[in-house]
């Protein structure tokens, strides 16, 4: 769990088992890797339109649903025009 401590108060991207991508500021976590994000948004990818961002606000993600956690570089992330990004949605992860 100590490895998640470095992400607290940083902007992160979570990829979940159902294929969703959630971006937000990590507010905290617990011993089961449950994560609390503040100012979070879901990014919905499409081949037909640009990336849609759906505001979620304060959001709790169960640790067993998280596939990946990565820190985002704010400057690089803000410089990308998401309306021009076209991508296939991520499929659900199966075990």
From TrEMBL:
Keywords: mRNA processing, mRNA splicing, Nucleus, Ribonucleoprotein, RNA-binding, Spliceosome. Residues 1-75 form the Sm domain. The keyword Membrane does not apply. GO terms for molecular function: mRNA binding. Its main location: nucleus. Gene3D superfamilies: 2.30.30.100. PROSITE patterns: SM. SMART domains: Sm. GO terms for cellular component: precatalytic spliceosome; U4/U6 x U5 tri-snRNP complex; U6 snRNP. GO terms for biological process: mRNA splicing, via spliceosome. It is found in: Nucleus. Belongs to the snRNP Sm proteins family. Plays role in pre-mRNA splicing as component of the U4/U6-U5 tri-snRNP complex that is involved in spliceosome assembly, and as component of the precatalytic spliceosome (spliceosome B complex). The heptameric LSM2-8 complex binds specifically to the 3'-terminal U-tract of U6 snRNA. LSm subunits form a heteromer with a doughnut shape. This is LSM2-LSM8 complex subunit LSM8. The gene is LSM8.
